[in-house]
C-alpha cells in the first residue's frame, strides 16, 4: 500500500553545512493498517510524514503508493495522487474566517464539485465526527478536540486511501486524546483508510496502532508489531519510550530484597494465551524449586494480555535450569537478572 524505500532528505546545498534529516528510511504500511512512528523532537518525524505526500521532496529514494513512485510523477499526476492522501495537523490548520461547513467543504470546492454534492458530503462527514450541529460555527467557538474532529472531516472529504496524522493529539488533554483516537479507529473500520501517524506519545502508539517504528537521528532504529516492541524492545530509545507507559524499573526496595536473597532472579515476560495459564504454579508443582514473585505487572496491549514479573527461584541449579526451560517451552521469555544489572 505505502512503501518508503531508502528515503534520504538532506537540507542545504553546501556540503559542509548540509543537514541529513532522514537517512535510509525503509517503511512498509499495509492497506487498512494504523502505523505509528514515534521519536523525540528533532528525530525527523515531521520530515518523514511530509515526504509521503511530497510536501517535502526526498533527496533520494522512493515513495511508493500502490506501486506508483510519486517521485516519478508529473505535477498534474501528483495532484491527482494527493487527492487520495488526507492529512491532519497538530495545530488543526483551519481557516478562522470560514465556518466549520466551509472548512470541511474547502477541498471539494477547490475541485469544483457541484454545490449539492458538497452539501451532502460535508453534512455526512460532520455527522460522522459528531459535529453536525456545529456546521455554522467558527473555529474559535470550538474546543481543541472539536477542531481536530473538523480537521479529520476535512481530510476525509476527498475519500482518501491514506490518512497522515502529524502529532494529531499532542495539543489535547488525555480524555480528548482518547476520543480522537477512538474516532481514528472508527475511520479505519468504516472507510478502510490506511493511517500513518507520527507522535512522541507512546500511549497513542499503544492505544491505536498495529505497528510502530522508532526513529532517532533521522534513522529507523527499530520497528515491529506494537505488542512485540512493547514487550521486548531491542534498543535503548525504544525501552525509554516503553517505560513512559509500562514502567518496569525495579524499585530500590526490591533491589535490596533481591540482593538479600539466595537463588537466582529472573525477569519473566509472557503474553497472549500464556498469560492466562497458571505458569508459575505449574512450574512449582513440576519441579523441586521455590518461586517468589518480587515485583511485576499485568496489563493488556492491543487486546492481548501481557505480564512482566521479577521472580526469585531457589533450588538445585540443575532443577532451576529445567524449570526455566519449561517456562520457555510455554512461550514465556525468561532472562536471568544479575545484581549488576539492577
TrEMBL record:
TM helices/strands, residue ranges: none
Record InterPro entries: AAA+_ATPase, ABC_transporter-like_ATP-bd, ABC_transporter-like_CS, ACT-like_dom_sf, MetN_ABC, MetN_ABC_transporter-like, NIL_domain, P-loop_NTPase
Domain ABC transporter: 2-242
Matching Pfam families: ABC_tran, NIL
Keyword field contains ATP-binding: yes
KW Transferase (keyword) present: no
Top-level division of the source organism's lineage: Bacteria
GO cellular component term, pick one: membrane protein complex
Lineage, highest ranks first: Bacteria, Bacillati, Bacillota, Bacilli, Bacillales
Gene Ontology terms describing biological process: amino acid transport
Protein name: Methionine ABC transporter ATP-binding protein
Species, as recorded: Lederbergia citri
Signal sequence residues: none
Protein family according to the UniProt entry: Belongs to the ABC transporter superfamily.
Example GO molecular function: transmembrane transporter activity
Record's keyword terms, sorted: Amino-acid transport, ATP-binding, Cell membrane, Membrane, Nucleotide-binding, Translocase, Transport
Amino acid at each position: 500500500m505505502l512503501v518508503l524505500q531508502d528515503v534520504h532528505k538532506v537540507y542545504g546545498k553546501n556540503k559542509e553545512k548540509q543537514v541529513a534529516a532522514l537517512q535510509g528510511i525503509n517503511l512498509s504500511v499495509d492497506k487498512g493498517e494504523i502505523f505509528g512512528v514515534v521519536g523525540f523532537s528533532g528525530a525527523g518525524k515531521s520530515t518523514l510524514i511530509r515526504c509521503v505526500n511530497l510536501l517535502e521532496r526526498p533527496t533520494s529514494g522512493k515513495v511508493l503508493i500502490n506501486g506508483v513512485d510519486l517521485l516519478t510523477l508529473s505535477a498534474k499526476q501528483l495532484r491527482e495522487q494527493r487527492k487520495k492522501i488526507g492529512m491532519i495537523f497538530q495545530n488543526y490548520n483551519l481557516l478562522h474566517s470560514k465556518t466549520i461547513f466551509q472548512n470541511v467543504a474547502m477541498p471539494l470546492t477547490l475541485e469544483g464539485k457541484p454545490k449539492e454534492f458538497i452539501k451532502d458530503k460535508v453534512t455526512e462527514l460532520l455527522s460522522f465526527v459528531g459535529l453536525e450541529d456545529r456546521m455554522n460555527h467558527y473555529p474559535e467557538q470550538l474546543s481543541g478536540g472539536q477542531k481536530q474532529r473538523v480537521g479529520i472531516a476535512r481530510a476525509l472529504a476527498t475519500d482518501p486511501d491514506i490518512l497522515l496524522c502529524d502529532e494529531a493529539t499532542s495539543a489535547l488533554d488525555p480524555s480528548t486524546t482518547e476520543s480522537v483516537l477512538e474516532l481514528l479507529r472508527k475511520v479505519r473500520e468504516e472507510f478502510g483508510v490506511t493511517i500513518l501517524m507520527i507522535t512522541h506519545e507512546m500511549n497513542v502508539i499503544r492505544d491505536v496502532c498495529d505497528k510502530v517504528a522508532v526513529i532517532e537521528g533521522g534513522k529507523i532504529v527499530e520497528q515491529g508489531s506494537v505488542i512485540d516492541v512493547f514487550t521486548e524492545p531491542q534498543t535503548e530509545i525504544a525501552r525509554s519510550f516503553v517505560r513512559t507507559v509500562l514502567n518496569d524499573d525495579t524499585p530500590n526496595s526490591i533491589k535490596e530484597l533481591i540482593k538479600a536473597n539466595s537463588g537466582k532472579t529472573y525477569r519473566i515476560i509472557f503474553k497472549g494465551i500464556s498469560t492466562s495459564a497458571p505458569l508459575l504454579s505449574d512450574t512449582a508443582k513440576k519441579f523441586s524449586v521455590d518461586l517468589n514473585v518480587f515485583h511485576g505487572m499485568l496489563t493488556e496491549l492491543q487486546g492481548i494480555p501481557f505480564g512482566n514479573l521479577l521472580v526469585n527461584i531457589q533450588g538445585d541449579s540443575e532443577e532451576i535450569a529445567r524449570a526455566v526451560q519449561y517456562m520457555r517451552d510455554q512461550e514465556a521469555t525468561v532472562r536471568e537478572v544479575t545484581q549488576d544489572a539492577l
